[in-house]
Amino acid sequence: LHSTLALSLLLIAVSSNLAMAIKKEKRAPQTLSRGRWGDEITWVQTYEEGLYQAKKSNKPLMVIHHLEDCQYCQALKKAFAENEEIQEMAQNNFVMLNLMHETTDKNLSPDGQYVPRIMFVDPSLTVRADITGRYSNRLYTYEPQDIPFLIESMKKALRLIQTEL
């Protein structure tokens, strides 16, 4: 009886530890941040919802195209999430959308469907193809070292609302 009780307790301890290890291994549910672009940012689910919110709130829509298994996207995401100025502007001044698929709006891929790609749409629902990064062969891409350019692009999107709309 004593050895049966000891064996039962051992099995309970092992299965409990195994259950805890399995539980820890489970990934947290994906938020609309889709891999930590910024969990404090309110993200819209779809391009259509983003357009609606941009018009309603009179804020520009920032669309980030990326892929989960893209090393360039991962590097940009990390730099984006760690930059306080970007996070603050994204939280307060933009309607934010990040997509891992293309939309039917061909205006969001004026020079091709590559990732990472960041486009801005103003509240009049005009895609701002004039807000570009620093690369002539991929106009709307930003790399981690381009964070100052991205900040300037965000500020330009905000200025255009005040001057043009």
TrEMBL record:
SUPFAM superfamilies: Thioredoxin-like
Pfam family, one: Thioredoxin_7
GO MF, any single term: dystroglycan binding
CDD domains for this protein: AGR (cd02960)
Domain of life, per lineage: Eukaryota
UniProt keyword list: Signal
Gene3D superfamilies membership: Glutaredoxin
Annotated signal peptide: 1-21
Gene Ontology cellular-component annotations: endoplasmic reticulum
Record-stated family: Belongs to the AGR family.
Protein name in the entry: AGR3 protein
